[in-house]
Design a protein that fits this description.
The complex is a heterodimer. By secondary structure, chain A is of the alpha/beta class. Chain A folds into three domains: about 160 residues, Rossmann fold; about 70 residues, no CATH class; about 35 residues, no CATH class. Helices cover about 30% and strands about 25% of the residues of chain A. Chain A is globular and about 55 Å long. Chain B has twelve helices and ten strands. In chain B, helix 8 links the parallel strand 7 and strand 8. The chains are: A alpha/beta, B alpha/beta. The structure holds adenosine-5'-triphosphate (2 copies) and magnesium ion (2 copies). One adenosine-5'-triphosphate (ATP) sits at the interface of chains B and A. Chain B: Keywords: ATP-binding, Nucleotide-binding, Transport.
Chain lengths: ~290, ~260
C-alpha cells in the first residue's frame, strides 16, 4: 500500500513583519490524508486564513514564512514543495491541484464579468482543449449542483444574493476537481438547508474523485457533523487535533471545551447562556513575537 | 424616534434571459424602538433586499416605507437625518470597508459628521468603540488597514462604524457570521444592552436560528420573498407552524444527537 498522505506541513511559522510583528502561525505540524475532510476551528484572528494562504502560496509581504515546509504529495506519485514553486508552476498548482474558496468569497467575484464568463474562464485557462459548448455545459452543471440554477448563468455578481455568490465561488473551486480544496468560512451566508445540500454534494464528489478538504469555520457544531478530524487553533498554534467524535466527547484542551460549551442551544432554556460570551478568562491580546 | 414600518412592500428584479423575479413579495412589519426582530430564511429569499430598501439603497416596486407613520424622507436634510438614525451593517465586511484607510478613519467620519464627538475627545471615543466590539488592544487596532485584519476583525469594524453615530435603528445583515461564539455572544449582548438602555430598534438578519431565538423578541421567516411565519421568538422556534420553518429547525446541527450512544 502506498502512503496516502496528501499534504504534510512541518514546523510551519508565519509572521507578519510589521512594526509590532504578529506571529500568526506557530509551529504547525499537520498531515492531511487523501480523501479526508479536516475541520479547522478557532477564534477570530487566531491564524486560520494565514495558514490557508501559506498552503496556497498567496501570502504577500509583510507576511513571511519564517520556517517550515508544506509538501503536496501529488496523486501522480511525485512531491511538490509548495514553498519552492516558481511563478509559472504556481499557475498550474492553483485551482488545478489546490483550490480555495476565500473568506469573503461573496466579494471575490469580478463585478463586471458575468457568472458564465467567470466560470468559463477557469476552463479556457486550464483546459484549453475544451470546446465552447462543453465549457458552457460544465458551467451550467456546476450552477445546478450548488443550487443557484443554470438560469443565472448570464447574471452579474451584484444580481445574486450573498449566499448565491458564495456558492458560485464554491462551484469555481470544484470546477477542475482539484486534489485539495481549502474552504475558508464558505457558508457564512447560507441557511442550514442549503448548507447541508452543498456539503452533501461535496461529500459525494469527494468519494467519487478522492479529493481532500480543509474546512475553516468557527462553527463547531457544523464541523462536528462534516469532518473526519478537527484541528483547533489558538493564537497561531494547533492545540488539539482528533476525530470529530473524540473532540466532542473528550476534548483535551480547555479552550476546546469552552468552544463546545458556549454554543447556545436551539431549543433549550431561553437566555441561559446569554452573557456567557463575556468570559473574563479569555485572552484577548494578540500573539506578539 | 422612531418606528419604521413596511407596508405591503414588494420588489421586482429582472433576471437576464428569464422572466421577472419577485425578490420581496407583499411584506409588512413594523420595527419598534427597543425591539429586535430577527429575519431568517433561505439564501436568496429577499432578506438583504428588505435591508437595502430600509436604508434606501433600493426603492420598493410597490408598497410604502413609513417612519412614525409618515413616508420616509427621500432627499435633502430629511434624508441625511434618516441616514444617521438608520444605520446598516452590510452582509459583506470585505466590500464595505475602504481599503486605503485605517480603522480609525472609518469611525472618525461618522463621529464628527454627526456631531457625536468633538475633535478633543475623538481618540477616546474611537478606542471606546473598538473596545466595545472587542477589537483590542484598541490603541493598536485603530491604525490598521482593513487588509491587515482577519475576516472577523473586519466585521467588528463594520459594527463599530454603524454604532458610531448612535443610531436609533440598526439594520444588521449577518453581522456576526464570521465571529466565533464567544465574541459573537459578546457583540450580540452589546446590541442587547443598547436595545435596553438606548431604546435601539434592531433588525437582525441571520441564518443562525439559535441566536435569532435567544436575542430577538420576534422572528420573521422569509421564503421566496414571502413572510411565511412570524411571531414571538420562542413560539416560532419551539412550535413552528410552517413546513419551511420546521425543516430549517430540524436541519440545524445538533451534536448531542449525532454522537448519541445507541
Ligand atoms: N497584513 C497584516 N499585518 C499585520 N497583521 C496581520 C495582517 N494580516 C493579518 N494579520 C493578523 O494576523 C492574525 C491572524 O489573522 P488571520 O486572518 O489568519 O485570522 P483568522 O483565524 O482567519 O481569523 P477570522 O476567523 O477572524 O477570519 C490576526 O490577528 C490579524 O490581525
Ligand atoms: N440587482 C439585482 N438584480 C437582479 N436580481 C437581484 C438583484 N439583487 C438581488 N436580486 C435577486 O433577488 C433575490 C433576493 O436576493 P437577496 O440578496 O435579498 O437574498 P438574501 O435573502 O439576502 O439571500 P442570502 O442569504 O443568500 O444573502 C435573489 O434571487 C437575487 O438574485
Ligand atoms: Mg479568516
Ligand atoms: Mg443577503
Amino acid at each position: 500500500m502506498t502512503d496516502d498522505t496528501l499534504l504534510s506541513i512541518r514546523d510551519y511559522n508565519i509572521v507578519y513583519e510589521t512594526e509590532r510583528p504578529v506571529h500568526a502561525v506557530r509551529d504547525v505540524n499537520l498531515k492531511l490524508q487523501r480523501g479526508e475532510i479536516l475541520g479547522l476551528a478557532g477564534e477570530s484572528g487566531c491564524g486560520k486564513t494565514t495558514l490557508a494562504y501559506g498552503i496556497n502560496r498567496l501570502l504577500r509581504p509583510p507576511a513571511v514564512i519564517r520556517t517550515g515546509s508544506a509538501i503536496l504529495h501529488d496523486k501522480g506519485g511525485y512531491d511538490i514543495d509548495i514553498n519552492a514553486l516558481k511563478v509559472k508552476e504556481l499557475r498550474e498548482y492553483r485551482w488545478d491541484k489546490v483550490s480555495m474558496v476565500f473568506q469573503g468569497a461573496m466579494n471575490a467575484l469580478n463585478p463586471v464579468i458575468s457568472i458564465e464568463k467567470q466560470l468559463g474562464d477557469i476552463f479556457s485557462t486550464h483546459r484549453p482543449q475544451m470546446s465552447k459548448a462543453d465549457r458552457r455545459e460544465e458551467s451550467a452543471g456546476l450552477l445546478d449542483l450548488i443550487g443557484v440554477g443554470r438560469d443565472r448563468l448570464r447574471s452579474f455578481p451584484h444580481e445574486l444574493s450573498g449566499g448565491m455568490r458564495q456558492r458560485v465561488m464554491i462551484a469555481m473551486a470544484l470546477a477542475l476537481k482539484p486534489q485539495l480544496m481549502i474552504m475558508d468560512e464558505p457558508t457564512t451566508a447560507l441557511d442550514v438547508l442549503v448548507q447541508r445540500d452543498i456539503l452533501q454534494e461535496i461529500s459525494e464528489l469527494r468519494s467519487q474523485f478522492g479529493f481532500s478538504v480543509i474546512f475553516i469555520t468557527h462553527d463547531l457544531p457544523l464541523l462536528l457533523e462534516i469532518s473526519d478530524r478537527i484541528a483547533v487553533m489558538l493564537q497561531g498554534e494547533i492545540v488539539e487535533l482528533g476525530t470529530a467524535e473524540r473532540i466532542f466527547r473528550r476534548p483535551d484542551h480547555v479552550y476546546t471545551e469552552r468552544l463546545l460549551q458556549s454554543f447556545p442551544s436551539l431549543t433549550g432554556e431561553r437566555g441561559g447562556f446569554i452573557r456567557s460570551g463575556n468570559d473574563e478568562t479569555r485572552t484577548k491580546d494578540e500573539a506578539i513575537v | 424616534m422612531s418606528t419604521l414600518e413596511f407596508r405591503n412592500v414588494s420588489k421586482e428584479y429582472r433576471v437576464r434571459g428569464a422572466s421577472k423575479l419577485k425578490a420581496v413579495d407583499d411584506v409588512s412589519f413594523s420595527l419598534e424602538p427597543g425591539k429586535t426582530i430577527a429575519l431568517v430564511g433561505q439564501s436568496g429569499s429577499g432578506k438583504s433586499t428588505i435591508a437595502k430598501m430600509l436604508v434606501q439603497l433600493e426603492r420598493p416596486t410597490s408598497g410604502e416605507i413609513l417612519l412614525d407613520g409618515k413616508p420616509v424622507p427621500r432627499f435633502g436634510r430629511g434624508l441625511r437625518d434618516y441616514r444617521r438614525h438608520v444605520q446598516m451593517v452590510f452582509q459583506d465586511p470585505f466590500a464595505s470597508l475602504n481599503p486605503f484607510h485605517p480603522v480609525e478613519h472609518h469611525l472618525e467620519r461618522p463621529l464628527l459628521l454627526h456631531k457625536r464627538s468633538t475633535r478633543a475627545n475623538l481618540d477616546a471615543e474611537i478606542e471606546q468603540l473598538l473596545t466595545r466590539v472587542q477589537l483590542t488592544p484598541a490603541s493598536e487596532m485603530r491604525s490598521r488597514k482593513p487588509h491587515e485584519l482577519s475576516g472577523g476583525q473586519r466585521q467588528r469594524v463594520a459594527i463599530a462604524r454603524a454604532l458610531a453615530p448612535k443610531p436609533s435603528v440598526l439594520i444588521a445583515d449577518e453581522p456576526v457570521s464570521m465571529l466565533d461564539v464567544s465574541i459573537r455572544l459578546g457583540v450580540l449582548n452589546l446590541l442587547g444592552d443598547l436595545q435596553r438602555e438606548e431604546n435601539l430598534g434592531v433588525l437582525y438578519i441571520t441564518h443562525d436560528l439559535a441566536t435569532a431565538r435567544h436575542f430577538s423578541d420576534e422572528i420573521m421567516v422569509l421564503y421566496k420573498g414571502v413572510v411565511v411565519e412570524s411571531g414571538p421568538a420562542d413560539d416560532v422556534i419551539l412550535n413552528p407552524q410552517h413546513d419551511y420553518t420546521k425543516r430549517l429547525r430540524d436541519a440545524s446541527p445538533n451534536p448531542e444527537s449525532q454522537f448519541a450512544t445507541p
